[in-house]
Write a structure and sequence with these properties.
binds zinc ion; 5 helices; about 180 residues; about 35% strand; alpha+beta
């Protein structure tokens, strides 16, 4: 396995529309290795999600996992979830405003409104089509990662930039408890 280099905001790959993965490619050893590398990279940088464009690959792949995460204390857990060609089929009208950060938007946090719950369809790493519902923090991460696959970052979803905060100031002035 390998830790992949993270693309930051400003690299064109972050703003590109990612390509879908042909179903038959999913089980190939080369693609399976890429999935392992994405998981390892997410864990290395204490991410709760990582989309392929964030590692310079313009493909519709995202990995999500929340354990006892240092960057997001008090959230989760969410088991390791791999989404290939994900589609959000339905999302609740009810939204919630909460903090997000991004490995490609280094050292910044901001409040983003997201649907509280949603239904998503995707291929898993076995190449099976799965469909499930998610809510709360899990639903938020799915929306954040699916945005990456369309070339969007959380900054685009902020209603106002008034809450945009550097990480150190976030911990100092905004974090509860
Ligand atoms: Zn991100």
């Amino acid at each position: 396995m390998a830790i992949l280099k993270v693309a930051r905001l400003g690299h064109p790959v972050i703003r590109a529309q990612a390509e879908p993965i042909p179903k038959e490619r999913i089980v190939s050893p080369e693609f399976q290795r890429f999935l392992d590398d994405m998981v390892e990279t997410m864990r290395e940088y204490d991410g709760v999600g990582l989309a392929a464009p964030q590692v310079h690959v313009s493909a519709q792949v995202a990995v999500i996992e929340v354990t006892d995460n240092r960057r997001y204390p008090g959230e989760g857990p969410v088991p390791l979830t791999i989404l290939i060609n994900p589609k959000i089929l339905a999302a609740s009208k009810k939204q919630r405003l909460d903090w997000e950060g991004c490995l490609s938007v280094d050292e910044l946090r901001g409040q983003v409104p997201r649907a509280e719950s949603l239904e998503v369809e995707a291929y898993n790493r076995q190449g099976d089509k799965v469909r499930f519902r998610a809510q709360g923090f899990f639903a938020r991460i799915i929306q954040h990662e699916c945005d990456h696959l369309g070339g969007k970052v959380f900054l685009d979803r902020m209603v106002t930039l008034a809450t945009l905060t550097h990480l150190r100031e976030f911990v100092r002035y905004w974090q509860e408890g």
